[in-house]
């Protein structure tokens, strides 16, 4: 697969400026991923809050109804069997039903993701893409993944192509690119840690 074409507006850009541009684009990419992760966590928290309110109201109403029905059933059954036996006959099945419903409610709550999975996958794609694009000078041919950050990565494609185009084979361009790679990898790795911390604090609440 052929290397991407150099954008016209980058053809006359100096090598140092291209390196700065690439680092800046990497920082912008990391910031955008953090914004997406924050929005995703906020959306998850709102869903969990709404579900919690619904479960709370349902539990209160259900408790009142069950209490009234249980009392009526025990009193009615006590007319033909001892009171304590009537309580057991009514109480044990209700306890089993409550246990089953509680387990189902727990499973329902667990379905609400506490980790922004879409953002985490997007960041992992960023990390893989950056490593692949910058690790081997002269082989920058991987297209930018079509995700939320695809536009920024597409711009980075052009910047990398310009770097390769302008680089003198005798220079130490690989060392420069390695420093940029290290910085971008550090940014993405740090972003992953921040998201995990945010997810952990959100789940503990």
How many separate domains make up the residues? 2
Helices and strands, in order, run as HHHHH
Structural class: mainly alpha
Q: Work out the helix count.
A: 5
Bin the strand percentage.
Answer: under 5%
What is the gyration radius calculated from CA atoms? 30 Å
Low-confidence region ranges = 137-147
Q: Find the count of extended strands (DSSP E, 2+ residues).
A: 0
- Main sheet, how many strands, which sense, barrel? none
Query: In angstroms, what separates the terminal alpha carbons?
Result: 49 Å
- What percent of the residues sit in helical stretches (DSSP H or I)? over 70%
Shape: rod-shaped
Residue-averaged pLDDT: 68
Q: What does this 3D model show about the protein?
A:
This protein has 205 residues and is mainly alpha-helical. It folds into 2 domains: 8-40 and 115-204, no CATH class; 47-110. The chain is built from 5 helices and no strands. The longest helix is centred in the N-terminal third of the chain and has 63 residues, at 15-77. The chain starts with 14 loop residues before the first helix and ends with a helix.
Q: How would the blueprint of this fold be written?
A:
Blueprint: H1 15-77, H2 83-110, H3 117-134, H4 150-166, H5 173-204
List descriptors.
mainly alpha, rod-shaped, 2 domains, 205 residues
Short characterization:
The chain has 5 helices and no strands. The chain is mainly alpha-helical and 205 residues long.
């Amino acid at each position: 697969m052929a290397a991407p074409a150099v954008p016209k507006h980058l053809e006359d850009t100096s090598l140092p400026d291209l390196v700065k541009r690439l680092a800046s684009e990497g920082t912008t990419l990391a910031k955008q991923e953090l914004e997406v992760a924050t929005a995703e966590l906020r959306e998850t928290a709102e869903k969990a809050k709404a579900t919690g309110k619904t479960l709370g109201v349902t539990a209160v109403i259900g408790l009142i109804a069950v209490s009234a029905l249980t009392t009526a059933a025990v009193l009615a059954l006590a007319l033909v069997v001892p009171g304590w036996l009537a309580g057991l006959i009514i109480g044990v099945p209700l306890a089993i039903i409550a246990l089953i419903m509680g387990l189902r409610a727990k499973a329902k709550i667990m379905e609400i993701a506490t980790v922004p999975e879409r953002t985490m996958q997007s960041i992992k794609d960023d990390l893989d893409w950056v490593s692949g694009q910058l690790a081997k000078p002269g082989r920058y041919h991987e297209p930018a993944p079509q995700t939320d950050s695809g536009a920024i990565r597409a711009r980075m494609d052009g910047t990398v192509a310009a770097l390769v185009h302008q680089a003198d084979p005798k220079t130490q361009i690989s060392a420069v690119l390695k420093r940029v790679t290290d910085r971008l990898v550090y940014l993405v790795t740090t972003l992953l840690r921040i998201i995990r911390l945010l997810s952990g604090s959100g789940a503990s609440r």
